[in-house]
From TrEMBL:
The keyword Lyase applies. Coiled coil: none annotated. The lineage of its organism: Bacteria, Bacillati, Bacillota, Bacilli, Bacillales. It comes from Domibacillus mangrovi. CDD domains: CbiX_SirB_C, CbiX_SirB_N. Pfam families: CbiX (PF01903). GO terms for molecular function: lyase activity; metal ion binding. It comes from the Bacteria. Keywords: Lyase, Metal-binding. This is Sirohydrochlorin chelatase. InterPro entries: CbiX-like, Sirohydro_Cobaltochel/CbiX. The keyword Metal-binding applies.
């Protein structure tokens, strides 16, 4: 029997974990699998090992492990596979296929634009700071550059900048204060983050410190959107055809 194990990042902020679970619960009806479970890489419960065990207890002989992440970086490439390897040692006959994150997708950029429009109508000379989580993996910066290009193309805005919350430059703080010192009339800070958490609260604190004549709008995180649910369901379907993970040394 096939099961889907959705693996979220996890957060110390309980509301963020609840948002992730609610998103996946909205998506589950779009997926053809009797067993569907949610777990977290870190900071929240249940763990990956607990999620795997629950799937097996319900009769799963094949598991599609889905990293519910925006971009492919260290968590998707290394951390989650290592956790799966450790947990799978208890189930030698279990087949595990590994899906891929949501990735760069124009419909996710459409949601970013919606979040900006929710904050305020934007003018043609609006300044935008797209904020990513950041990673030491160079693929993250490549992906984010692509996202920025798509964003510019769809909005027709030219004054679009990037900042990262960790492990990449320019940092969010450096980019924010640099842009706040310009003569822009509108400054939109658009988080490329799925859910609320420590990072969104950090952003909010920094924005409140700003001293600028510009109208500043901190947009909300991406959150649930039917288009994103469709993308996640599509990634699950694609994973049905992935080669099973091999954990032998």
């Amino acid at each position: 029997m096939r099961a889907i194990l959705y693996i979220c990042h996890g957060t110390r902020i309980k509301e963020g974990a609840k948002q992730a679970a609610a998103f996946i619960e909205e998506t589950m009806p779009l997926v053809d699998a009797q067993i569907q479970e949610i777990c977290y890489l870190e900071l929240s419960e249940p763990s990956i090992a607990d999620g795997l065990a629950k799937c097996v207890q319900k009769g799963a002989t094949e598991i599609i492990a889905m990293p519910f992440l925006l971009l492919t970086a260290g968590h998707a490439k290394k951390d989650i596979p290592e956790e799966l390897k450790q947990a799978a040692q208890h189930y030698p006959n279990l087949m595990i296929r590994y899906g891929r994150p949501l990735g760069v997708h124009e419909h996710i950029v459409d949601v970013l634009i919606d979040r900006m429009k929710e904050a305020a109508p934007f003018q043609e000379d609006a300044c935008v700071l797209l904020v990513g989580r950041g990673s030491s993996d160079p693929e993250t910066k490549q992906d984010f550059d692509q996202i920025s290009c798509l964003f510019k193309e769809k909005t027709k805005l030219s004054d679009v900048h990037i900042g990262y919350l960790a492990a990449c430059e320019p940092t969010f703080e450096d980019a924010l204060y640099k842009l706040a010192a310009t003569k822009s009339r509108q400054l939109f800070i658009v988080p490329y983050l799925l859910f609320t958490g420590i990072l969104t609260k950090t952003m909010d604190r920094e924005v409140r410190k700003l001293q600028t004549e510009a109208e500043v709008y901190l947009c909300r995180h991406i959150g649930y959107d039917p288009m994103l649910g469709q993308i996640l369901a599509q990634r699950v379907e694609e994973a049905f055809y992935e080669v099973p993970l091999c954990f032998q040394s």
